[in-house]
Amino acid sequence: MELSFKHQVGLVCVILLFPALCSCHEYVTNSRASYYNTPDGLGNPRGACGFGEYGRTMNNGSVAAVSGLWRNGAGCGACYQVWCKIPEYCNGKGVHVVATDYGAGDNTDFIMSKRGFYGLGRNAGASKELFKRGVVDIAFKRVPCRYTDSIKLHVQESSKNPGYFAVLILNADDITAVQMWLKRQQRWEPLRRVYGAVFDFANPPTGEILMRFQVGYKYWLLPKIAIPANWKPGATYDTKLHPY
Ligand SMILES: *[C@@H]1O[C@H](CO)[C@@H](O)[C@H](O)[C@H]1NC(C)=O
């Protein structure tokens, strides 16, 4: 099909604007991808999402730093199918990566862990060739995540009970807001996004902490289980809530 210039411009607008407005999974975008080095080829445990050591091995280490898809941290934990475009080297189905970090490169949308970047190639030799190039043309689309685990809440080591509550949200993506139930006031109060997937709240109420999570500005997930009153910095609590 021949598209007129006007139609092409319209199409470009739709492709550029829609991923930000909806979590539609069918839009394919052309871009570029590169990779970063870690000693083990897995994720960067200091990634900007705040996933820490967990972020190293998420999705079997096939992870990426993203730039335009970062969305002030709401892009943390989001999943993408990424494939490259050199027929002799690139495999057709590409690789599934999870965003765990922020990273802007030379017009790249993804700076992948080596494990992830390796997955673009048809075979070991082809992947080696892709590594040599350093940056490759790709296409990508947002896809549903494959978290098999429920959403977990890791109380950050910087927290103090009572007085200060900071929490990392794991196994979720597209978290656009988090709120805490204030029992005495009988209302929800927003937490502040500190960075990535880490949110905090000064002077949290004593007693158990019940939070809810907004997904993609669209709906709220309400865990069945609250964080117990004796919560401890460094502990991880299971919400038993499965987002999929
Ligand atoms: C994780 O990646 C390694 C290296 O590519 C692979 O050998 C292993 O089978 C993968 N594990 C899973 C569970 O996919």
CATH superfamily of the largest domain: RlpA-like domain
**Category from helices, strands and their pairing:** alpha+beta
Please state the CA-atom Rg, rounded to the nearest Å.
20 Å
Strand runs, count:
15
Bound molecules: 2-acetamido-2-deoxy-beta-D-glucopyranose
* CATH topology value of the largest domain: Barwin-like endoglucanases
Query: Averaged pLDDT, please?
Result: 90
Quote the beta fraction.
Answer: 25-35%
Q: In sequence order, what are the helices and strands, one letter per element?
A: HEHEEEEHHEEEEEEEEEE
Outline, from the CA principal axes? elongated
CATH architecture assignment name of the largest domain: Beta Barrel
Number of helices: 4
* Helical residues, percent: 10-25%
Q: Can you walk me through this structure?
A:
There is one protein chain. The chain is an alpha+beta fold and 244 residues long. The protein has 2 domains: 8-143, Beta Barrel (Barwin-like endoglucanases); 152-238, Sandwich (Immunoglobulin-like). 15% of the residues lie in helices and 32% in strands. The chain is built from 4 helices and 15 strands. The protein has helices spanning 5-21, 53-57, 114-118, 124-133, and strands at 29-35, 63-66, 79-84, 95-102, 110-112, 136-143, 152-155, 164-170, 175-182, 187-190, 192-195, 198-202, 211-215, 219-221, 236-238. The protein has a 6-stranded mixed beta barrel. The longest helix is centred in the N-terminal third of the chain and has 17 residues, at 5-21.
